[in-house]
Design a protein that fits this description.
heterodimer, A: 117 residues, mainly alpha, B: 207 residues
């Protein structure tokens, strides 16, 4: 159950973690995948690709092709205005959620809240 | 199985599973994964063990396809419609407007409507305006433009409708004159106000 819960949590934030990784710059899909995996934010590397495709379809990221010094041209991702807006919205939501959950967890660790909940 | 055969087999399984579940995304997914494998192998020895490690890290093809499938177990998607009904309406705005434009264009051909005195010009203008609005909403920045344009146009049309009674002659024909003219002019006016509100909601959402 704990492992499933973690997978659910990761799934809920993966999309915005991708947007955050791209940030204000441009990112190569392979690097996005590697960095997410290193941080343990995705279960399998491959699942990031459908996620990136969805972000492209939703207009949150756009891509440009760049020549590579080692191989075929590479597709780089960057945020659109909608992507930036979505990321900023998530950052605010996340801060609020984290504060509330931390607060509850703190109470739980101390042995419950005063009002009996 | 050598490295190349492992990659071929993996991509074949991926393509088959994707064609079954998400045919419109299959080509894109296979191309992305092929690029990933090439990039990963460029930094490795490229032998069968190295290839197998890259494929293991990718995960089974079925897991990738599950992640791409729209009905997949994704809590954010399932929670979205109930959590944000307004957003669903805003997202459907182009379809609502296109549908309204189509219905009004159809109604223009109904003899009952023409007997009510609805000016044919108003119908002929409103139908394309709504359909055009539906397309404009889908363009970046189109919503804000449309909100402003529809707001101004809607206000003008409603002002015109309210002015109609003043233009009708005095006497017993005044009532029927007003009824015949106000209604038909109010319809396009309210239509434009709806366009304006939907466009404003969409502009606000993307701002």
């Amino acid at each position: 159950m704990v492992a499933d819960g973690m997978a659910e949590l990761r799934r809920g934030v993966a999309e915005h973690c991708v947007l955050a990784l791209i940030g204000d710059g441009e990112a190569y899909a392979f690097d996005i995948v590697r960095r997410l995996t290193e941080r343990g934010l995705v279960a399998g590397e491959g699942t990031v690709y459908p996620l990136l495709a969805r972000l492209r379809r939703e207009g949150l990221v756009e891509t440009t092709w760049r020549e590579s010094t080692s191989g075929p041209p590479r597709r780089y991702h960057r945020l659109t205005l909608a992507g930036r807006t979505s990321l900023d919205g998530f950052a605010a939501d996340w801060a609020k959620l984290r504060a509330e959950v931390d607060d509850l967890l703190g109470d739980a660790v101390r042995g419950g809240t005063d009002d009996g909940r | 199985m050598d490295g190349e055969a492992l990659v071929r087999d993996y991509l074949r399984r991926l393509e088959e599973a994707a064609q079954r579940a998400v045919p419109d995304q299959a080509d894109d997914l296979v191309a992305d994964v092929r690029e990933h494998i090439d990039a990963a192998l460029a930094a490795s020895s490229g032998d069968a063990d190295a290839v197998q490690t890259v494929l293991d890290h990718l995960g089974p093809p079925e897991a990738l396809v599950d992640a791409a499938a729209p009905a997949g177990p994704e809590p954010t998607r399932q929670g979205e419609p109930s959590a944000r009904p307004a957003r669903a309406v805003v997202r459907a705005a182009p379809w609502i407007l296109g549908g309204m434009g189509g219905v009004i264009a159809l109604a223009a051909w109904l003899p009952t409507l023409s007997r009510t005195g609805l000016p044919p010009a108003a119908v002929l203008v409103l139908a394309p305006v709504l359909i055009l609005a539906a397309f404009t909403l889908q363009r970046p920045g189109g919503a804000a433009f449309l909100a402003a344009a529809a707001g101004v146009a809607g206000a003008l049309v409603i002002a015109l409708a309210l002015a109609v009674p003043l233009l009708c002659p005095d006497g017993e024909f005044a009532a029927s004159c007003s009824a015949n003219r106000i209604g038909p002019v109010l319809v396009p006016g309210l239509g434009l106000v709806v366009v304006g509100l939907l466009a404003a909601a969409r502009a606000w959402r993307s701002a």
